[in-house]
Design brief:
Distance between the termini: 36 Å
Helix content: 25-40%
CATH topology: Rossmann fold
Low-confidence stretches: none
Strand order of the largest sheet: 3-2-1-4-5
Mean pLDDT: 94
Number of domains: 1
CATH architecture: 3-Layer(aba) Sandwich
CATH superfamily: NAD(P)-binding Rossmann-like Domain
Length: about 100
């Protein structure tokens, strides 16, 4: 199996990153987005798990999806400090976190 990837934000760029992750063998691929239709697009594009960050259990579900280790590769799409903080808090040891957009 490939490395676990967590993509924060399922907008156009998040979905492109999802396609690349799937192409290069990432597994599992977890996508979080607060908009249901975007989570549906992510599922259609190959996400193994989609999560709503407003769900109080989303962190537990992310941990479960990554075998308790956290994500090994994380792409942060939204330019918010909350998204960046969440990524750093849920990263596996030695993870790579790509902050895709600047914060405001």
């Amino acid at each position: 199996a490939g490395m676990s990837v967590w993509i924060i934000g399922a907008g156009p760029m998040g979905l492109i990153n999802l396609r690349f992750a799937r192409h290069f063998g990432a597994e599992p691929i977890v996508v979080t987005d607060p908009v249901e239709v975007r989570r549906d697009y992510a599922t259609d594009a190959g996400a193994d798990v989609t999560l709503d960050p407003s769900d109080p259990d989303w962190r537990d579900r992310l941990e479960e999806a990554t075998g308790g280790w956290g994500a090994e590769r994380i792409v942060v799409g939204p330019g918010s400090t909350t998204a960046i903080e969440s990524a750093l808090a849920s990263a596996a040891p030695g993870a790579i976190v790509l902050v895709f957009t600047p914060t405001p």
